[in-house]
Structure formats: structure tokens, C-alpha cells
Amino acid sequence: MFEDKTRVLLVVPQAVLDRARVFAGEATSRLKRPVSLQMVLRSLIDEGLKRSGDRAVFANIEAQVQAVRQIRSRVGRVGVEKARPRRAAK
Within this chain, do residues 30 and 58 fall inside the same structural domain, yes or no? Predict the structure, then answer.
């Protein structure tokens, strides 16, 4: 089934992971077969990519882009402040 598989490190918020676990539990109950978290995440990614023109998908991507920009700008400012030499108190 997965001849061309690749390993990926995926970092997601705990709330997203919890929702995916709930989904896996619901799928396990409905299908009466074990459904792993990995199966759920693979399916969600695959289905999300099929919805290439969906506004909700782009809105989610935009929110993530903005969050990353804010984090990086805060880290950049802190890094600049640490790099500046401090003046000795007189």
C-alpha cells in the first residue's frame, strides 16, 4: 500500500492531537477495527490536500503563517537585545 513512503516529523498543537485521538476512537467504534492516530493524520492530510481551493484550508494556513511570523519577530527582538553589549553602571 505504501511503497513510496517517506518519514516526516510533524509538530502539532496538543489540542489538534487530542481531537485526532478522539476521531481515531470514533473511527475504531464505527469500523469495529483498530484505527491508529497515524492512520487518522494520514487521512486528514490526504483529504485536506484534495480540497485545494477550500477557503477554510487557506484560512487555516494563513493563521499558521501569521502565528509563525509573530513568534519569529519576538525571538528576533530578544536575540538583538542579547547581542547588544551592556553598558557598565557608573
Answer: no
4 in any annotated domain:
no
Cα 18 to Cα 11, 37, 44, 48, 53, distances in angstroms:
13, 10, 14, 18, 27
Which residues, other chains included, contact 57 with Cβ-Cβ below 8 Å and sequence gap of 6+? Answer: 48, 51
- pLDDT string in tens for the chain (90-residue length): 678 888 889 899 999 999 999 999 999 999 999 999 999 999 999 988 888 788 988 898 899 999 999 999 988 776 666 666 666 655
For the chain, the domain total comes to 2
Domain that holds residue 24: 10-50
